[in-house]
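Worked example 2:
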Amino acid sequence: MKAGTESKTKTYTAIVLAVLAVFTVVYELAPSFSSTSSAAPVAASTGKTKGLSLESLDPRLRLDLLATSEDVKYQGSGKNIFRTASELVIVPKVTVPPLLSQQEQQAKQNVYIPPPPPPPITLKYFGITNSKGEKPKAFLSQGDDVWIAHEGDVVNRHYKIVRISPKEVEVEDLLNNNRQSIPLTQG
């Protein structure tokens, strides 16, 4: 049996891929080898490499440039650059009168302003049940929520039903300590 003669196209494809792999490896490795060796002849022939002059690459000591740098006087801002701590800055002290609360301002003016009234109770009383042997129940609503409550019940974790009558219900707002009578509404 002869190796690779069964399929000539497979053999040719393998040879072409091997040649491409060799060229790829050479192409990738060649710039790293040639960059150090080829840069010197190009610089010598043209006199410049990538914007640098040949004079700037000269390793000899230039006393004329050193002399000009010796004549430069340091004119700083007065800050010591060798100290890590910052200098203290004196901030002038300004006295500001303290803000008076509204009650203190009223006391100064001898004017009494009563506290704002508690928010109104927004429950609506729209019905009652009076069955024999049972306590009366009130039908209350707030928005889309509806509650059926006896006297002493707490509605919406906020309002306590104190008294139920056919015409009105007395409700205590537990959060604001406020009592209000809500009349029976139709509709």
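DSSP finds three helices and nine strands in the chain. Strands lie at 48-49, 52-53, 124-129, 137-142, 145-149, 154-155, 159-164, 168-173, 178-183.
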